[in-house]
């Protein structure tokens, strides 16, 4: 055990006697799913507090007490409150001694590379996927005007992001990001992001993912490495996907699809 | 000294005998400036390798060997290459034992809060300021079409980001982010981002910053805490600001202003 891990262990010991960890989440939000899957895979004892985005519960004064940014996910661990999913994943990996090193390595060089993936994610894949899905699927389904220029720019960024994952982040010998042999918080976070593309029209999704064989294999590997939790936590997204298949989005401006679409809007 | 800091110290010792740290940067890029100022303030011995964005040097095959994402800044420390400015700042704070703890605290809880500021920055202040400056100032000056809808959305996000800094991130007793008494890498990174607004029309800049008194004081404090390096490193930006005053951007589609504006485009 490295000194950094021991340090984390000591911090974790200060958790003894605290209330159980609380995770505020909506499973329709991709970073919420990443945090929930991480807790389940690592046997972290937690209580899931559902904040229903479709009911605008994330905008209530009560939730603002948990996260003033009114975004999901957020955690409360005793007196300690935290938001931003990557920060939460790093905290959990350090604060709970049972989490294996491969999720967030203690070694400075490996850890720094992982930070670069996580920051890259925010400015590239997340920005692209979120903007594209919002402007091509969510806003039209809600009957709201969408920004087609933003969608076109997001499409370019999404292709470029997938290409970078395929040719750079997955280029090492190992099957996971950065050529590692076991999954990290970066694999989990980025794969949960890509799962959001499931709500797109099937042909459109295939247009994005089809050319990237390594990306497809990596999604499967991350799913397998976190089985059965990955599928269980994505269950609600897959149900929505099935419903949308039978109710094309562009025609679904009212009724049930509206609620479904509100739920698609994730925040962090 | 905490165990985590000792661990960082050990990693740092493995640097002994390495080539001097190399920082690839263009001082017209806000994250490049943050990394350079950090090195100077902390007495880190480094060589600055200028990558001139206006000459598209960041797009050359030679620079792709340093950073395949073709973005600035990037560092090379011996055999170790790293990009994404927040990752670089965290690495430098951990790898160089002379860096005081307040820049990136070893304590897990303090460190986690700092991560949440840094990730928030990417999805909010950076995204807003970059999109706004690009679409209102850079693209028009280059004679390229700009996305006015994107600019309008960025304007809203920029006001909202400034409001969040004023009312939440600066709400503690201390004069810096998270109520701390001394500056961190988050202060440096966010303030360098806001300095990019200097290239806006003076009235427009005042429209954004005027309402936020704590933000204005915090910018001054961060500048003072990193004096004289802060002003020295921002010198080139201030020269551009002066030139632009005499050559309104909307009329400057050709000639010298074009080169100046190309230099404004930063990447990470």
From TrEMBL, chains A, B:
Its EC number is 2.5.1.18. The keyword Signal does not apply. InterPro entries: Glutathione-S-Trfase_C-like, Glutathione-S-Trfase_C_sf, Glutathione_S-Trfase, Glutathione_S-Trfase_N, GST_C_Theta, GST_N_Theta, GSTT1/2/3, Thioredoxin-like_sf. Transmembrane segments: none annotated. Residues 19-100 form the GST N-terminal domain. The keyword Transferase applies. It comes from the Eukaryota. Residues 107-249 form the GST C-terminal domain. Belongs to the GST superfamily. Theta family. This is glutathione transferase. The lineage of its organism: Eukaryota, Viridiplantae, Streptophyta, Embryophyta, Tracheophyta.
